[in-house]
Amino acid sequence: MGPLTQDLARLRDEITSARDARKQLIGSVKEFVGNLKESVDDLTSNAAAMRADFRKTHAATVRKAKAELSGCVSDIKRNVSSMQSAFRNANTEAARKTKADCAAFASGVRQTVAGIKRATARTRKEVAADINGAHRAWLGARPTRIEVVHKPELHRTETVARVGSRSEESEKRVSAKTKKRR
Q: Taking the model in full, what pTM does it have?
């Protein structure tokens, strides 16, 4: 066997072994692609299952949170309503108390003013009687009487000296002089 024969035999053996290696590689690649396809299919189905499970879990979580929040909202509404009611009641009670206090104060002021008016009228009568007595002592029994006249429409009291010998005009002048002094 010559070198050419040996070279051809070796070339044939190399081609055969390369073809066998190629067939084996193609078989391995086909097996790898098949396995990869199965893995991708498994991952796709697992991902779909996980997404479906996530949607279910998320929906359940949302329902639970919504129920808890609606309970909180109803509690808040109830608390706000009770606070508003308590405020209204306290405000009504405070208004009632303030009204009663103001009425009592006004009544006390009216009583005090009425007492002052009575004391002033009594004092004026005493002063008028004293003036009348002094006048009689000094001039004799000239004026018949000195009166204290209360005029409620004018909210004041006047001292009028009624003298027996004077006319009504002079009585008015005495009354006018008394008004000017005040």
A: 0.38
